[in-house]
Amino acid sequence: MVKIAPYGTWVSPLGAADVARAGTAPSWVRRFGAEVFWTEGQPLEGGRSALFRHDGARVRRVLEAPWNVRSRVHEYGGLPYLVLGERVVFTNWDDQRVYLTDRDGTDPTPISAEPSTPQGWRYVDLVAGPGDAEVWCVREDSSDYRELVALPLGGGPARVLGRTHHFMTSPQPSPDGRHAAWIGWEHPNMPWDSSELCVAAITEDGTLGPHRVVAGGPRESVCQVRWEAADSLLVMTDPDGWWNLHRIGLDGSVVNLAPGEHELGGALWQPGHQWFAQLGRGRFAVLRTNRLTVLDERSGTVTEVESDLPVWSNLDADTDGVVVATAAGPRSDWTAVRLDLSTGELEVLGTPGELPSVEYLPEPRSGMFDAPEGHRIPAHFYPPTNPDFEGPAGELPPLLVCAHGGPTSHYVPALDVDIAYFTSRGFAVVTVDYAGSTGHGRAFRELLKEQWGVADVRDCATVATALVKEGLADPGRIAIRGGSAGGWTAAAAITSVDTFRCATLRYPILDLTPWADGGVESHDFESRYVEGLVGSLPEHRDRYLERSPISHIDHLAGPVLLLQGLEDRVCPPAQADRFVAALDGTGVPHAYLTFPGEQHGFRAAATIAAAAEAELSFYGQVFGIETDAPEVGLHR
Q1: Which of 367, 422, 426, 478 counts the most CB atoms within 10 A of its CB?
Q2: How distant, in Å, are the alpha carbons of 305, 338, 387, 475 from that of 341?
Q3: Where are the alpha helices (DSSP H) in 255-306?
Q4: Where is the Peptidase S9 prolyl oligopeptidase catalytic domain (predicted)?
């Protein structure tokens, strides 16, 4: 029998441990012959990243603890491994050196030199060099100097291939070994603002000759490149404002294979990410805003592939028509998959964690909300979902508004156990693609230009207000939550508008000037990111002070919960420390939880579970809801 109980108090089979187990989402799925490899987080092993392979019959773990297959380049990492025949090459997190092993992970041996300081050299985006005798990759040192290097598999010193830009990625030798291609960009641009595709001849000594730019430039972003033949490249770039797939010849020819206002690429946060793969005969597997499609250049069409798992990421494929990737659905967690396009057979390769009945998992309702400024705001609404409970007549549920990180990113309508943890207890949740989000073309991304902390806050408030008007949320019980740049948006919202009753800030940016001005409290990759989001320095220094949430403690609309990793080099704990110090004694209820050993984003099971329980307890205390979480102490 269905019980009537206040929203937020419902008894749920989803616990904090289930949220922690969901931290195993696979990534970097690649095909190597008949086998499929991928990495996968291990929350119960301290959050390390393990390497797996599916040999056609079953899943095997390639590397046991303590090996951690993860790169630190740009602090966000990227493609950390490569398979060459029977050999596997990978970057190990602890020392950031590159190691060589076999497909069973036997006795890994370093092939990169030991740096003079711990993690002093970091490697990412590993690809096979000409003849498979060496590995090409990006090397970053502790002074933020980057170059393309070759690591001989047989040992010996690295050979520097070349350096053309402050940031470089995607080194690609041509099929005939005569040329190389790569992507580069300079401060203050981010790769999605402006980047260049470079091509150079490989000289007799194996280094790169003078380069020329064949794609990209001001307000054009190249996010993926692959050689198609010795004289042509396949390039995902956006000269017309949308990431489309192009063929670019060394003779200067450029052909858009399927022109249209569709986003077939994405923001290059992590080197090595893939949005397209060749299928042969003029056909390509392509991700259109995380939907698997087939692009046919003969007809110039992009056709969606029907699948039980409609949300896809980071794909790979071959001319046999078999695609591998990570995939998920509204009620299916992320897993590694293999899809045969000729038969439609979808095989789940990984082993997703056990979840309760789908009846406890929310079905998102995707929609668009009208912004007063004229644009439309995409969002996914997750209603309270629990077959055992209903809310009292006349009561509306509390609403959690989620602001994504980046901010150059977007949400997808895939299962998020963190969201289900709350909806199964009677909360409503909405994820907002505010102005600046990806997946909707360059013009939408650039709506956030110099408007960070304004347009993003406004769009989140607009969506929350619209849901209240629709009778889907209690106007007096609305929270905003986010991590990293999403934490910034949540903090900016709770200090500038009165829509939200409270805010949860995970590893947030709170003080712009030290984060942006010379990267005093940030890292090189993003040290000038804010110039495009807020304004150039020193001309707009006053704007940095005015936008920073730490400058407006006296305007807080309600309580705040801060969750911070103590080894975070992207959003360092010093920011949260100052914010909390300014809060102490103000009378505003707040809680501050720190987690030793955690970097940017939580990976260990104990941390993830503690953060989920703290957040539930926080909302319970603020909204007057009796929850099943251990109480987190609020200070004033």
Answers
A1: 422
A2: 8, 10, 36, 47
A3: none
A4: 416-624
